[in-house]
Amino acid sequence: MKFYIRLLLLSLFLSYLYPASKKRFTDRQVAAMIPKYFDRDHNSPNIKRIRIYGKDEQKYLHLEIDVNRNRYLGELDYTLSAMANITQYAKYPFDVFIVVMQPVVRSEEPEALRSNAKCTIDYFIHKRISRKRWSEKCTTISSDLETFVTPSTVPSDPVKMPAKDPDKNNMIKLILFVVVCAGCIGILVKRNSK
């Protein structure tokens, strides 16, 4: 009898630890973490604008940064790496990263990079794909900002975004597991008490 009670308590304890191990952040928290991430490195580019919005059933993270084209400092790579590092823990996953590179020299045209978020995370974080494949299949660079930048509208509410919450499925599985364990323990206790 004591064994079953201990098993029940252990399963309840472990079920409380499982969600705590996977911290997920809201869009507002992600947007607040980006400047802090950039502030910790003195070689990081200046951020001019951060936007999170939905468009065409996709969720976008849009950053505008200052770049100096006279010397290469890796601003674009740093920005995409930061976006991948932070957004891999987002509560609602991002679909597209957009980086608008505003040149320091006013006579030059700004450029924009559009990248698939999952593919970028696979390249920068998980190292599952090569740089060549990532640059060919996952990114697009253009100086035509109209194709990348959404019109000035109110950013969409993340609650209205398509439901892609992996934690929801995990929570349902966890609750189902705890209920099944409790039922099995109840049946075993009932059989042993006869």
SSE arrangement:
Blueprint (H helix, E strand, L loop, with lengths): L1 H20 L5 H13 L7 E9 L2 E10 L7 H13 L8 E8 L7 E6 H8 L6 H8 E4 L23 H28 L1
Parallel strand pairs: 2-3
Antiparallel strand pairs: 1-2, 3-4, 4-5
**Number of DSSP strands?**
5
Distance between the termini: 12 Å
What is the mean predicted local confidence, pLDDT? 81
Radius of gyration: 23 Å
Unreliable stretches covering 5 or more consecutive residues:
153-163
What share of residues are in beta strands? 15-25%
Shape: elongated
Overall SS class: alpha+beta
Explain this structure.
- The structure is a single chain.
- By secondary structure, the chain is α+β, with helices and mostly antiparallel strands.
- The chain has 2 domains: 2-22 and 168-193, no CATH class; 27-157, Roll (Diaminopimelate Epimerase, Chain A, domain 1), CATH 3.10.310.
- Helices cover 46% and strands 19% of the residues.
- It has helices at residues 2-21, 27-39, 75-87, 117-124, 131-138, 166-193, and strands spanning 47-55, 58-67, 96-103, 111-116, 139-142.
- It has a 5-stranded mixed beta sheet with strand order 1-2-3-4-5.
- A hairpin with a 7-residue loop joins strand 3 and strand 4 (111-116).
- Helix 2 (27-39) crosses helix 3 and helix 3 (75-87) crosses helix 4.
In short:
The chain has helices spanning 2-21, 27-39, 75-87, 117-124, 131-138, 166-193, and strands at 47-55, 58-67, 96-103, 111-116, 139-142. With 194 residues, it is of the alpha+beta class.
